[in-house]
Specification:
308 residues, alpha+beta, 2 domains, 14 helices, Znf_SWIM, SWIM-type domain-containing protein
């Protein structure tokens, strides 16, 4: 139990009551125009994938957090995190308890020197963005990116948080629930970890891509446009599309904006990959892309894979 604003112990709130309050809070917020992204945990397992599990593991290895984390796990499993938003260096959440509380978390960006060290240690070992985001990494790379204090996951000294609840503890159960919610969200959107730390996941594969392209040109005498980009970027790619992207076509093409792609669920790093591979074409306009004949199918296939 937590304390009320007047310092008295708050009455016990059952799981059923908490879920009902959470549902009521979401409904009220939607009426006000807020697009809530609740955290939904299947069974008791908060995270299933490499990135989600490593985020939770990282939280649990710090003694700073050990006293409050168990209550946070209970809250997130009960569906109490009714909204979770992750952006550059920030996490905001609404967590339902005896009432709905606002949680704000600030995470320092990864230090440039540390990021360069990680890039150097992983150089040539990450084959594609799809492999990276799905956690299909060599053991040596996993050790580097998940290492406490020097990997991609923040240490306590890099995290600042606050909650609107009256609990005077450094980390209340609502903050703990929100932090566990991040692990759950990384299962579906691992790219959010890189957004949170203000780094570009594509940089982790640039060395491998560059080396592969140079080797392909040396072995076959082909130029960049003829390289096997579908293998390099882990996506289905029609060779004809590469030719379209390489040869500046003068005929009018259908376009799509960055905003439309974001609304459909396409993250920034995929747009960058698709520009290189020919799924999207440079239009000459800011934040506007040309579409090749196969583009819509490639986008639909990608979104279907993410939904599975």
């Amino acid at each position: 139990m937590g304390r009320n604003d007047d310092g008295r112990w708050a009455p016990y709130v059952s799981v059923a009551q908490r879920r009902a309050e959470a549902a009521k809070a979401v409904k009220a917020l939607k009426k006000k125009g807020r697009d809530c992204l609740p955290v939904v945990v299947d069974a008791r397992t908060i995270a299933h994938t490499f990135w989600g599990k490593k985020w939770c593991d990282n939280l649990e290895q710090y003694s700073d957090y050990e006293n409050r984390l168990p209550r946070g796990r209970t809250y997130v499993r009960n569906g109490s995190v009714v909204d979770l938003q992750i952006g550059p260096e920030s996490i905001t959440a609404l967590v339902a308890g005896s009432r709905v509380y606002q949680v704000s978390v600030t995470v320092r960006p990864l230090e440039p020197a540390l990021w360069q060290t990680i890039l150097a240690r992983c150089a040539g070992q990450v084959g594609s963005l799809v492999d990276l985001l799905q956690g299909r990494l060599p053991a040596a790379v996993m050790e580097v990116v998940a290492q406490a204090g020097s990997g991609l996951f923040p240490a306590p000294r890099q995290i600042r948080f606050s909650c609107s609840c009256p609990d005077g503890a450094g980390m209340c159960k609502h903050i703990a629930a929100a932090l566990y919610g991040v692990g759950n969200r990384l299962d579906l959107q691992p790219e959010l970890l890189f957004l949170l730390r203000n780094i570009d996941p594509a940089e982790l594969i640039q060395g491998a891509v560059h080396g592969s392209l140079v080797q392909a040109e040396t072995d076959s005498g082909q130029n960049l446009g003829d390289a096997d980009l579908s293998a390099l970027f882990g996506i289905d790619l029609d060779v004809a599309a590469v030719t379209i992207a390489r040869d500046a076509v003068s005929a009018p093409v259908t376009t799509i904006s960055a905003g439309e792609l974001t609304a459909r669920g396409v993250p920034v790093h995929m747009r960058q990959c698709w520009l290189k591979s020919g799924v999207l074409l440079a239009s000459g306009q800011r934040a506007v892309y040309g579409l090749a004949d196969h583009s819509e199918k490639a986008i639909a296939d990608y979104l279907a894979r993410r939904a599975r």
